Amino acid sequence: MESSILQSIGVEIVGVMSPVSICMLLVVLLVYSLSPSNPFSSAASAPPIRTAANLVYLESPSDSTTQKLEGALLNALVFVILVAVVTFLLVVLYYYNFTNFLKNYMRFSAFFVLATMGGSIFLSIIQHFSIPIDSITCFLLLFNFSVVGVLSVFAGGIPIILRQIYMVSLGIFVAAWFTKLPEWTTWTLLVALAVYDLVAVLAPGGPLKLLVELASTRDEELPALVYEARPAVSRGMENRGSALGLLVAGVSDSGSVELQAINMDRNRNENRSNSESNAAETERYMHEEGESSVDLGERSPLVGNAQRRLSSSSDSSDYSTVVVQSDRSRQIGSREFENAVDEEMSPLVEMMGLGDERELTSGGDGMERSGRGIKLGLGDFVFYSVLVGRAAMYDLMTVYACYLAIISGLGCTLILLSVCRRALPALPISITLGVIFYFLTRLLMEPFVVGTATNLLMF
Amino acid sequence: MTVAAGIGYALLALGPSISLFVSVISKKPFLILTLLSSTLLWLISLIILSGIWRPFLPLSSTTWWPYGILIFTAVAFQEGLRILFWKIYKRLEDTLDAFADRVSKPRLFLTDKMQIALAGGLGHGVAHAVFFCLSLLTPAFGPATAFVDRCSQMPFFLVSAVIALAFVTIHTFSMLIAFNGYAEGNKVDQFFVPIVHLASGMVNIIQRLNKNSSIC
């Protein structure tokens, strides 16, 4: 029995949603386990640390509402300005080709984040659960962990699953630190960052947009921390080989994610004007169209499919390319350009700040769809988890509601991505939905549900 | 009652759904997306419902008929949601079939349609279990437990977990039956589902009526 289409639709989306869900789940668990059980203990009333997000106003529970609101707005404004300044600095450095400096700075900052932020979280876990471990072992383990983390993120030849795991752990550590901020500041900061993200990625003068264009004109990857949603293991679907493998096989699965675009990239770049490789190129374009699993709309793989079948016999390949070219020359021309731009553009993201209280995390985020699968910036992971972590400090119901809101926002952004095919900010939709759902759940739903459930009246 | 008991209650409410998820749904990413979207729809319906009822809360616990109206409106709303879900599903089915034709794959089989219905129902069930049972379970991880008023031998958490389990089953399979009923125009199936839902909701009120009889 042939496999139905249900097998393969939606793989890319789930490939991005699962690490986001895992990150959020672990942050919630961390928040729950590390929150002091006694709200009046000395740990809870320790003076709040002064971070970059707290520069202007330190919130304390005894301030009035308007004071808190103004202070929170000031904090958020200052933070966004700092983030914008640092991003512009990054753009300038990148423009003047200080790439070595940038790379080394990123390696250092990743190491620092893993070692210090990760270290302090591990220490509080050890303290909380009274795990018997001595300091030398702990130090060694932490050092190994951080070094392997830096290697896996920035060096090649490391299995992708390890890289994904370290990306998610980086996101968890930074998010867990952000949840230590006071409540009003956190919410206003999230909303301000969502607005900033929208402006920075889409507006013509936005720093992130400049960065993406610079990287694409130079044909290189962005110097940034990005989560790539390549599947580590193919799940029973035919794994795409090189372009030649596709020509021979003839049948393709509409949803496989990984394109193994490395061979094809080189081919394409060398033979761009070469007619023999047109078959491979158009094959790849058809395949990329087939890749967009969300597109239940207008992709017209019908022609692509016919072309695949035609080109399965290599002697008719010339004929098939001529046929296809004449039919869809305009479309292929434009798609070629778009796909060329897509291939090179890497998404936007996040320059992680250092763990020191003075440092900032400049969060620029966005997502992008290249031939190798969807990429999501690490800043998105962090701020989704911050939202869910803050919701976790209230109740489990708000956690679930915010989780659903964020996931649906992410789904909408992915659908938009497959329609627009350019770098898109991943924060705004999800954060707006998350904030709305949080307040709706907290104010409306909770008295209702708790009232009925404690009376054992369920429906 | 300790972490072990807390996890036990959570698994009691969600155990079958976890096994359904792992065996059927996790293999097909589209079903995961269906599950998430049906959970979201259920959540939205619950928010709208609580928005409507908010001015009337808290209900007095002595009379029982406000609870009756509450449950009736809630069930009616959710059945309306099911019909809405069915309409969206019809359109989705057409789009999926058209896509299948384009990539020359077979159209949706009956098992596929039933799997989508199952995922939808499971989404409703999981949402119900989380919001009505799991969100109240956080105290259960602590050192003590709370007993039900009228039967002082069963812990409250256990009762709510068992009821949540029953409702998960109802939600999951009623979606399946309802979709089948709508597809084949079978009136019996179509009315079976709302009646069962309403009955199970109303039965809960009975236990509020008999204050003296023990329900152990």
UniProtKB/TrEMBL annotation, chain A:
Residues 311-326 have a biased composition (Low complexity). Residues 281-290, 327-337 have a biased composition (Basic and acidic residues). InterPro entries: Peptidase_A22A, Preselin/SPP, Presenilin_C. Its EC number is 3.4.23.-. Residues 263-337 are annotated as: Disordered. It is found in: Endoplasmic reticulum membrane; Golgi apparatus membrane. GO terms for cellular component: endoplasmic reticulum membrane; gamma-secretase complex; Golgi membrane; Golgi-associated vesicle. The chain crosses the membrane at residues 12-32, 72-96, 108-127, 133-154, 184-203, 398-419, 426-445. It holds the Pfam family Presenilin. Probable subunit of the gamma-secretase complex, an endoprotease complex that catalyzes the intramembrane cleavage of integral membrane proteins such as Notch receptors. The PAL motif is required for normal active site conformation. Homodimer. Probable component of the gamma-secretase complex, a complex composed of a presenilin homodimer, nicastrin, APH1 and PEN2. This is Presenilin. It comes from Ziziphus jujuba var. spinosa.
UniProtKB/TrEMBL annotation, chain B:
It is found in: Membrane. GO terms for cellular component: membrane. The keyword Membrane applies. The chain crosses the membrane at residues 6-25, 30-52, 64-85, 116-137, 157-179. GO terms for biological process: Notch signaling pathway; protein processing. It is a multi-pass membrane protein. Pfam families: Aph-1. It comes from the Eukaryota. The keyword Membrane applies. InterPro entries: Aph-1. Keywords: Membrane, Notch signaling pathway, Transmembrane, Transmembrane helix. PANTHER family: GAMMA-SECRETASE SUBUNIT APH-1 (PTHR12889). Belongs to the APH-1 family. This is Gamma-secretase subunit APH1-like isoform X2. It comes from Ziziphus jujuba.
